[in-house]
Amino acid sequence: MQGSSAGGSFELRFPVKSEPGRVLLLEKSQIFYVEAEADDSMIRTARKKRYRHSERLDQVEGRLASPPFFRIHRSYVVNLNRVFELRSRGDDEWELKMDPPVNKVLPVSRRRLRDLRELLGI
User: Fold this and answer.
1) Is 73 exposed, middle or buried (CB count within 10 Å of its CB: 0-12, 13-18, 19+)?
2) Using CB atoms within 10 A of its CB, is residue 79 exposed (0-12), middle (13-18) or buried (19+)?
3) What angle do CA 57, 48, 56 make, to 5 degrees?
4) What does the pLDDT read at residue 107?
5) Which of 34, 50, 55, 63 is a plausible cystine mate for 77, CB 3.0–4.6 Å?
């Protein structure tokens, strides 16, 4: 029984390979979004610092459960539990605003909008 508890706890963490010989274990619930940057990913939490992770965004996306994580754009996967607002920019363009303290505004691709709206029930 104790082993299954530890396994469950581990599933709440995401291992971030930030540099050779170092792996950070971030709580998935603390991740606001993940951004593609060349062949790496940048993970954003409530801290101002972004964490570099040595995997491509599509690999990270495959390791984060959907929902709550959802690919909104070729460059972004967001934690829907950390989204404050979905808003129109006009001409069928939409964006998300993340919860404080991040407050980052991210684009939603037209391809992903219908699935996002369906997932959110709007």
Assistant:
1) buried
2) buried
3) 10
4) 97
5) 34
- The two tokens of residue 46 are 């409530």
**Cβ distance 40 to 54 under 8 Å?**
yes
Q: What is the CATH number of the domain that holds 87?
A: 2.40.50.1020
pLDDT per position as a tens digit, 76-95: 999 999 999 999 988 888 99
CA atoms within 13 A on the CB side of 5: 2
For 82, the token pair is: 């950390």
Decide if pLDDT at 43 tops 70: yes
How far is 14 from 105, CA to CA, in rounded Å? 23
- The whole-model pTM stands at 0.86
- Give strand pairing partners of 105: 97
Q: Range with the lowest mean pLDDT among 22-26, 56-60, 71-75?
A: 22-26
